[in-house]
Give the backbone structure.
Amino acid sequence: MGLAVGIDLGTSNSCVAVMKDGVPVVLTDEEGNHTQPSVVAFGREGNVIVGHRARRQLVYAPQNTVASAKRMIGRRHGSDAVQRVLQTTAYGIIEGPNGDARIEVGGRAYSMPEISAYILQHMRSIAEKATGEVVDQAVITVPAYFNDSQRQATRDAATIAGLNCLRILNEPTAAALAYGIGKGHRQHIAIYDLGGGTFDVSILRIEDDLFEVISTAGDTFLGGDDFDHALASHLLEKFKKETGIDMSQNRTVRLKLRTAAESAKIALSTATEVEINVPALAHNADGSPIDLNTRMDRIEYAKVVLPIVQRTFLTCDDALAQAGKASAQMDHVVLVGGMTRYPLIQEAVSQYFGKKAYQGINPDEVVALGAAIQAHNLTEASPETASILMDVTPQSLGVRTIGGFCETLIERNSGIPTATTKIFSTAHDNQSEVTVAVYQGEARMAEENELLGQFVMDDIRPAPRGEIKIRIGFEIDADGIVKVVAEDIESATVRSIRIEASSGLSEDEIQTMRFDDLGF
Amino acid sequence: MDPQLAQAIEIETIAELLPELTYYQILQVDPLAPTDVLEKAYRGEARRLHPDRFARSGNEDTKRLANQIYRAVMEAWKTLKDPETREAYNQELEEGRRRMTDEAKKQAEAAAAAAANPIHAAKTEKGMKFWRMALRNWHDGEFSGAAMNIQFALNFEPENETFLEWLDKAKNAQEGVADEKRNPYKLRIV
């Protein structure tokens, strides 16, 4: 067995860390970079570039450069998530054979797990170069609010990259582990994790070496990108007001403004006012360029992004209510994720919890460090010294019942691993099959939740309705991934079903995608 | 004895007994023990039997059984931590069932959830809207706003007992705040 590392596979940036002499350390590339942009660029000769070099290509060859694949992983092509990303990308996104979203670059379609696998592979090779050892196992982190399909797709990405995925770990939980707050004391902490594309908040109880997640809530549609998007839209509107020209339908313009918005955001973290200049945003009738020149101070910026910040606090309300705690009962508030570097967020969070939000470890690295600790716990640490993580499932698991309602079988924030069983019976005389549709989400109507998959028990012997009983067991493992086992009580036949999400890859597909023999 | 082997034997023994054990026996506590004792026992057992402890065990059987026992520990605690579900379980025990039936479990859990989390108290959509705002006000310490929003919510659900109870709470809290404001030593906010 090779070395086990922790990988934070982020929306914007990824990071890899390993335990060294009892301390987790970030592994850097040859140029000393601690993190890598989660960007994959495809060259003309079919070569693949990942990380900083790929990020540079984003500017001049956006049609061959994939960023924010994490926003689409485990999502159906028709989903809002994918449609939203489609608005901002220069490459094509097509529907895959399983209804998943695939990226079309250079005449080939890539599934999201493949794109993520390129990033994992890149992180792995950085780790191997930095340590001089073979790396073949990893704990990979995901947003706590990721559903089954997204977790499954992430695990598939690891398989494609030839990594043994020791655990799919929730990002806020990983951060808590890295902080190790409360060792020896009993404390409650809130982790506020605002990354490039997702937002999570987790409430934990920590006592000695036991890290117990009480509740988690999140929004997989909310992150740093949304701040840039909001400012870009604001700038477009401003430009339209001043010049009368509407450039909102122009992709290149949108991309330019997004970049300008991101620079402004970064500048405003230190400066109180910035100048935003975008040359040649549009052209006059005679072909002369019209530039965008404007100034923005922190107060105006805060106004533009206020609705987004407020959305994070609604999610915090929810997590606290689920934990049965008040914000004032938190002993510590920890900030995680690149976005929490901005004073705007730090102040707002401190105000919400009524105490100074804490940020002792680099928010871009803390998740990878925690993942490295867990990788060590699962492979090398002696059972006596390893800390124990008790995590929860972020969304309720249910099945569709008559009338299209969703019957909850495993409630959100149940500790994992967990399992439950339900007995289904036939609704009609001589019914020959029973279909079970499995959903994740909190809505009362099944259709409003995320369909994880459906499966059919067939070959049922003809009988009056209600006579045939089928027991179905639902299990959520430590990775937060769902497994379903169906048993015909009468014939005692047991079938294990891996829920193949409508957006997922089949086992065969994963095997053919594996990088192993590509010499990548 | 090799500690790993000892552990494996212990796991096998507990797993074999599992169907016969009550939740109290699973947690190894007295049926009359107070909640904090149960909680301590639960954490001890959860820590000891957590599946991660067995991640490196080569023995798949031990892993599977440990997982099973761990889930039983979790279930025991989930049932016993809340006085309402614990009471319902004690009832089941008296009737000779060591595990609660799904139906009884569900009912008790729903009642407990409603009691623990007031957000579920609203029964109508409009009532819910104002009720949420009221709880938010309460959370922010704006008790007069909370009282007002509960009044609005009561327009849609005049009989809702939770609403009425919280209206009293909000009014009392409001008076408390007013008292504080009268305190001559307190700084005036301009």
In short: Chain B has a mean pLDDT of 81. The interface with chain A takes residues 43, 46-47, 50-53, 55-56, 67, 70-71, 74, 78, 102, 116-117, 119, 135-136, 139 of chain B (CB under 8 Å).
